[in-house]
Structures are given as C-alpha cells and as structure tokens.
Design brief:
By secondary structure, this protein is α/β, with parallel strands linked by helices. Helices cover 45% and strands 11% of the residues. It has five domains: 19-227, no CATH class; 371-580, 3-Layer(aba) Sandwich (Aldehyde Dehydrogenase, Chain A, domain 1), CATH 3.40.605.10; 586-771, Aldehyde Dehydrogenase, Chain A, domain 2, CATH 3.40.309; 821-1042, no CATH class; 1046-1115. Strands 14-15-16-13-12-18-19 form a seven-stranded mixed β-sheet, with helices on both faces. Strand 27, helix 36 and strand 28 form a beta-alpha-beta unit. The longest helix is centred in the last third of the chain and has 36 residues, at 1044-1079. It is flat. One of its GO terms (biological process) is gamma-aminobutyric acid catabolic process. One of its GO terms (molecular function) is succinate-semialdehyde dehydrogenase (NAD+) activity.
Amino acid sequence: MKLPFFSRSSQEHMDKPAKPNNYKVLFRKWPRKARKAVWWLMPLELMGVVPALVIFGISQPDLYRSDMWKIGWEHDPPLNSNPAIILYAYANHRPLPKIALVWTRTFTDFNVAISIISLFFLLGKLTAFIMKCWYPIFATFINASLVALYTVSTYGTIGPDYADSRYPASAAWYYRVGCGIARPYGKYKSCLIAKYSLVVCIYMLFIYLCNLGFSIYALLPNKINDVSDDDEEDEGSTTSEPKERGVWEMHNMKTPDARAMPYTPRTQAFHTLDRQLPLRSQQHRGTMALLQRLVAPSARGVLRQSPTITLMITRKASNASPPKLNDPSLLKQDVCYVNGEWVKAKSGKTFKVNDPSTGDLIGTCPEFDSKDARLAIRAAADAFPSFRNKTGRERSKLLRAWYDQMTANAEDIAKIITWENGKPMADAKGETTYAANFLEWFSEEAPRLYGDVIPSSVPGNRVWTIKEPVGVCGLITPWNFPAAMITRKIGPALAAGCTVVAKAPAETPFTSLALAELAHRAGIPKGVVNVVTSHENTPELGKLLTSDPTIRKVSFTGSTNVGKLLMEQSASTLKKLSLELGGNAPFIVFDDADVDAAVAGAIASKFRSSGQTCVCANRIYIQRGIYDEFVSKFTEKVKSFSVGNGFDQGVTHGPLIHDKAIEKVEAHVKDAEKKGGKVTIGGKRLDDLGSNFYAPTVIRDMTPEMDMASQETFGPVAGLFPFETEEEVVKMANNTEVGLAGYFFSRDLERVYRIAESLEVGMVGVNTGLISDAAAPFGGVKESGFGREGSLYGTSEYQITKMITYGGMGADASDFHNDSGLMNFDLDLDLRSTQNRFNHNTLFEMAFSRANAPLRTCLRQLVRSEGPAPLRSIATSPRTFSTSPFLLKKRKISAPANSPNSANAKAAAGSMNKAEYDTAKVPMPDPEDPLDFTAVIAAYAPIDAHFKTQLAGMIHGGRFNPTNLGSLPVAIKDEEGADATFPLRELAQVVPRSGRAISLLVNDKEYIKPIMSAVQSSREFNQQPQRSEDNELELLLKVELERKDDVERRIKEAVQQWKDRIRNARSRHEKTLKDWKKNGTVLPDIVKKAEKELQKVQDKKMKEIDQEEAQTIRQL
C-alpha cells in the first residue's frame, strides 16, 4: 500500500487542513497485518526515492522543475529552505567560520547524507516503538531525512552546474533564502509535516537560525569593506532602473548583478514565464532578455523593498555576472577578422567558449573551415606587395599606433583574458603589459632591419646583403597567454613587412579578436592582419596553413606532438618554420644558494598562471644539504595562496583551462604517491570552487622513475627531487627529450658558467625564476622546437637574407664605355631635379619588385614637363642587371641622345609623328626579345593642373605608345593577375598580355575624355585596330565612371535594408509579447513596459543609422 506522503498528490494533502488525530486514529484502526505491511513497505519506498534524488542532486537541475516531483516555484515547500544555499554563496567571498566550514563539508558528501538518512530512519523506528504512535513519528523522521538529502542535493545543484540552468543562479540563491527567512512558519502552518511533527518544526527552526547567523556574520564586515561601485552609483534613489547592457550580455542571459529578488507579483510572473518558456529557445531569447531587464530590480531597490533579506545581499556573489567592459565592442562574437572586415563562417556554424571558473557560457565564435580560411590567405597575399613596399618607418608607426590602442584598452583586454582563461586579474594585467611590450619593441626595430657589406675575395666585386620579408605567414597561437603569444608573433612579422593569417586558440579566442579590433583602429591596412577561429576544424585549418603554397612561413606554439605533425605537413612546400613546443624545465638549487631567494624564484616559475606555462619549473632539484629547509619554506609559501575566481579580490591562482588538464594533473599526483612521493600540501580537486580547480600541490621525495620526471605536468604541482652532486643533477636535468628552459641558483661564479653551458636548453635563468622579455630571444632545442621569438632574432625569423654581388668595380675605366661613348653601366640615371628623386626611386623599386607579375611590367620613370633639365636617360647595358636577372635578360637598349632635337628626345616628349618615328635612327623591335620591347621611353603630357608631374609612356608591340595615364586618382585591376589591385599613380604604365582587359575605375568624369583621347591617339599612331585577332599584345582599356549619386543611392539602399531588418525584428518581438499576454503567461504591466522598451530601442537604433548615413555622405 502506498502512503499519501509519497504519492504525487501529496501536496494536495498538505494544503488541506486535517483534524488533530485523524491519521493516528486511522492507523490504529488498521488490522495488525496492514500496519506490519506499512512498516516494512516504508523502507522500500525510501530506497526508491533516494537514488532518484541523488541523481537529481548531482547534475539535473531541470528535473527539479519537472512535474514529476511536484517541487517547483509554485509550491515552495519547506524543503526549499536550507543552510547550504547561503553557505555556498558565502564560501565564495571569504573564509567561513569553523562551524560553518564543518557544516558545509559534511553536507556536500553524499555518503554522509545517506548515513544521516539511515540515522533518522533508525531514530524514527525507535521513537515509534517507544511512543507506540508509529505513523506520524515515523513519517516525521522520514521527512527530516529527506530534508537532509535535499540540503545536499540542492547544494550540488546550486554549484557550477546550476549556472547553465533556466533561471539566473544569483537570483535563485537569494530568492530561495529570502523565502526561508521572511516566511519561516506562516505559509506552511497548514502543511502535514508542520502540523503533525514537532521534530520537523524544530529542525526547520534550526535551519532558519543557521541561515540568520551566517548572514549576520557575512554582513558585518561588508558594511565597511565590500560596498560595490554599483551601490555607490545608486545612492540616494529609492528604486534603480536596470542598467543598459550590451547585446552579448543579453544573449548570454547574464543578470546585471547578483542581487536578491523579493517575492512580488513581478517575480511570480517571471517564475511562471521561466517555467513555461525555457530561455534556451533561440526564438524567444531576445525578448526574454528584455523582460529580464524589466523584472530584475537593481541592488538598492531590493534593499528598500525587502528589508527582511537585506542581510543576505549586501555582498556580491562570486561569478554572478560577467565582467563589464568599458568598451563592449571589443568582445567580438560570431565573427572573424578577414581583409579588414568582420565576417561570419560561410557554414554558419559556431562553437561555444565557456568560463573555466564557472562553466558559464561566454559567447560563441565562428567555426571556420578551409574555404573560409582560404579567403583570409588570399587577403593576406593581396595585401603583401603593397605592405612590403612600405618603409620601415611607416610600419613602425603602425605598430606604435597598435601599441597605443592596446595600452588605452588594457583593462578591458585583461578582463577578457581573465574571463576566458581564468587567471587572476593581476596576472591578466601583467600579461597585457607584457603583450603590448612586444608591439613597442618591434615598432622600434622595424626601421633598423639592416643588411651587411661583405668584403669579396674577387677583385672588383662588391658584396652586400639585404633583408626582405619572407611573405605571407601562418600563425597558430596557444591559450595559456592569449594576448602575449599573438603579439609576439604578429609584431615581428609586421615589422619585417609580412602579412599574417593567425589561428586563434579555441579556448581563448576573444582576446585575439579584441586585439584584431585594436589593430583595425590603429590603421593597419586591410588584409595585413587576419584572425580566424575554429574548434572542430582546427586540424583542417592547420593542414591548410602548412600545405598552401601561398603561405611561406608557419609559426606555432603548442605541444611537441602537434609540432611534429605540422612539420611533416609543411615538408611538401618546404616552408620556413618556427616551432616553440613543450618543455620540462629543471630548476636546480645548490647548497651554496640563497634559500629564500631560491624559494621565491621557484614559486614564481612553477605556479605562475597555475603552472600552465611552457617554461615553468617542472622538476625542482634541491641539493641534499638544504633539502628539508627548502621543502619547509616552499610549503609555507604555497599555504599562503588563495585559489578562486580570477575576478575576486585577493585571489592569487585561478582554475585550470579544462577537464583534460585536471585529469593529467591528477594522474601525475597519483603516480607520484604510488611510487613513494609524499604530498605536503594540496593533492586534490577543489570541487567546492568549480570543476576546473585543483589545489596547489607540493610533493617531496620525488624520484626519476615518476611520470613527472619525464612528462610536462602543466598544472599547479611542484615535485621536489633531492640530489647529491653536480654531475648527478646535470645528468638528470638533461635526461629528457625536450629542452626549452632551465633554471639554477648558485653563488659560485665558476659553477654559474659551468652549469649554464652544460644544460641542454635554449634558455637559462640564473638566480631568477622569470626569464621572458621582449628584448630576449625565446626558444628551445631538441624536441622543444627551433627558431626564436622576441628580440632582433625574432624579426629575422620573418625575413630572408638576399646576397647581391656587383662586379667590375676594379677594372680599367675604358671597359665601361660602349662604341657610342656612353657609359656601359648596368643602369645610368641622372636626376637633375631633386624634386622628382623620391617619385623616381619609388617607381624604380616597383620595376624590380613586380618583375614576375603576370602583367609583365617594364622599367618606368617619371619626368617633369617643366624645368630646364628633366630626367636625362634610362638605359641598360648588354649584361644582365645583377639584382633582377629575370627582368632584363641581356637587353640591348640605347640611351637617347643628349640633344633636345634628337629623335629619342622627340619621342620622349611625345612630339614625334609616325613618319619621323619610322625614319629615325631609334632601336627597332627585337624578335628574340621575350618581352616584345627594346626601349623604355618616358613621356609627359599634362592632363590636369593638379597632376603635373606624374604621367608615363607605354611600350606596346615594340613601338611608342603615348597613353598618358599618369598618376590619376584611379585603381587598376587585373582579375587574372597575381596583383589584384594596386594604385595607378605608382604603376605609371602597364604592358598587358594578349586577351586581358585592364579596368580603370575613374572617380571623376573630367578624366575620361583625356584618357580616351590618349588611347585613341595611341591606336592611330601605331596603326592598331580596335581589336587584334593575332596573338600580339593589345591594349584593352575599359573605363567606368562611378558617379557620386550612384554611391549615395547604394548607401541609401543599404540603410533602408538595415532599417527594415530592425522593424521586422520588432514585429517578431511584439507578436511574441501578444501571445504571452493572450495566454496569461506575463502580467499586462510587464507587456506594456516591454513594448515601451522595444520602441525606445528602435528609435535609438534608427537615430544612429541616420547619423551614420549623413556622415558617410558628407565624407564623399
């Protein structure tokens, strides 16, 4: 027979008033066998209830709200009030009193909970036997045991798992506690338990007293020390309006603060809404966020509306709300930075990024695949030619501007690092400064990338070297230093003139995206920096970066196994590699060292970032003479650590990044204990803080056979190894496959040199535990990788060294003249006008840099139309020019005569007609010439008064082509060529291949007529038809005018589309609100406020769009 108490309709029985002894009388009237059956059926029912409640308490908060158990917000049974709730919220702020700590630890152990249940069961049985009143007393103790179990299960539910439930955790904590304290007895006086069980009443009273006592204890110091900024801002107002929050906060459903919710009709409506419409539904998420802002009052309002729970809410609960950024636009969600724009993945897929401290969802990032990444690679390749031609000083200014942006937003960057990485704010701020230092360092190095002059062993030869950028670079960064690792790679790449495609870590992508936003604000040209993200597709992107021939260099920081794989994949294209891989750093303390300094150095090296650094001390060797002293002092230092959420004040160490890191640390600790190691402190998880927290651990009496001696732990575990002699410790330190960093402490100068040279590592710290510096080269040996980052050596990783040999400097002067008496140098340039020197040099460099481009560009030069002596000559000798043999292959080009009336001078001036050109003694086309021209002649013919000095001629089919396109405000584009776009003002002229069209996009119609006239005169002069059917070179110019009104029309169309999207979104929200109002889900006043808020948001957005439209049109 099933008793009413355990039936699903038990709540109905609780709500009905009963006569004093109806159950007692009823029970006594039962037959003896029936009473006996009930007696033995009771434990069987209890055995069925306990497993379900245990499962519920571990990980199923949603089961709590299901109709199956009938324990929801609408009933508020006495089980809702328990001390574990307040203890959990309280434990995240400061150390508990001893009694509270014992209480919490006891009621978080399910084994103890089951023991308590058994104890209550036996007490109930004994009491029922003595008092001969079986059912009421027995039911009382059964219910009391369930209260105890519920206390434990609720404590487990309110933990990190609860943060992912349907109701904001902070509001749930204090609402439930508030219910328990504000209405301790009155609401439940009609309940069966409260009416018939004195024991349960006493138990519940004890619970209320515990809650009240712990609350008072928590309140007293908070009045002085822990008043938050939010409270100060709301001072003087009776109610507080909800603060404006970014879209990212609304989508993640984070509450503005961790304040209490009074039991009012508004919260009752919200509870009903929460119960009927899950917040995880995408179609209601935006509207739900809006309602949440209207329902949840701020701190001061709650304090004045509900004084009975003031004691519980004066202190902010840890991790109750996300950090508030000064500039929320730095947190980029669902987009990556490609070609100067924020784009989504074509597939639309995203992956989640969670806070390692709480497990809360931070946001989502796009899941890029190889197709998306190829666009980023293409953008970097297109940007490379123009960026490499920038001077070192120009690149320096860009890096400095990026540095300035980073320092100005340092606090927000630190908050993002702490949020997604978990490290304390103090460490995050230090990393931000460290990361910015790389930008500053390389901004100073960019103008000083010098070459060398080398004495040659051959008489008459001169040898020198120059440094050139390697090309497009693929960068793969780790999660442990999300800001420093990306600036340490991008900084030297940009200083050298390279463009990059950076793959951000899946665990901490938001820091990389924030830095990309700051780079965009700093004015770094589009396509130079590209940042992509992926999680599941990470192997696919890694393979693309290592196999795509466009990528000329790959830089990777991560594990040794992944580095080996990337090196194998790069073999097919022989890329330049920089690999900074795993480490297993030895930390040696000799008996002549300063023990206190050694302890401080070991603490800094081992436990920085909770031991999650590649250079942290993984094996600490202490000489036997000072071993015990070192262990004692080292352990005492570790005892002073404060582990917790990185945003809490006073926290020194945060969580590990994920479950796999915890499992590896646990495995190493268990292995050490199994093989004789002794844990002096720590050695276990800190589950009360969260699933990713592990106590800082010290293990003494370590031996070389333990896993920690040969594997990188990457966690807060310090293994202390004793040693006897110097030779012994050097052998143990080098007995590993990796060699990244090593440390030792000694006062013996001879030993310092000896040990520093003996350690097989790339970096050595002597009497210090911190070795990283922007000015110092960073890298390892053996299987820790190769290449260096930081310092001037880091810049060299992104450069190639080109050697140039110039011959004939020591021979007789007569050897350098040809038959005509002209100098036979490789290149004879005589600039009489210094005003044109810069323009000429720029063009001259372009002539060689674009020598292999598909457009087959030729040497070009600029001349002046005015002035006594323009550019005198440009000529090449019969031999190949040393720096670019592929450009001028044994070209025989004569220089024009010095006389202004000569044929070449007339051709240069554009005043020669076709008859004069044919009869003049000028070089004729050479059929063996692979580029189909034999001379380069510059001409000047002004088009506009604003562009007097920048026009050029073109060689076409071996004859002069006076197509004076000059330096107009145009852009030239060849869809098939490698150089997709480059400004015509720097090009001067182009020799296209047959069958290709060159589009000139002219911004002003007044330039169309002179351009078309020049093209027509060129065709008439050379007797060329409009289209040639043979395979000779032909010039196809297509001029397109973009008028200002066309641009304005497109702007207005885009603005209108955006406004339509806003209106459609509002319509969807209004429809949802109407449905809720119709169904009675939400109170009418809530719907009205929501509609007003929607109108307010829409008006604000429309105003911003109109302002941006007007500003854009003004800038045209």
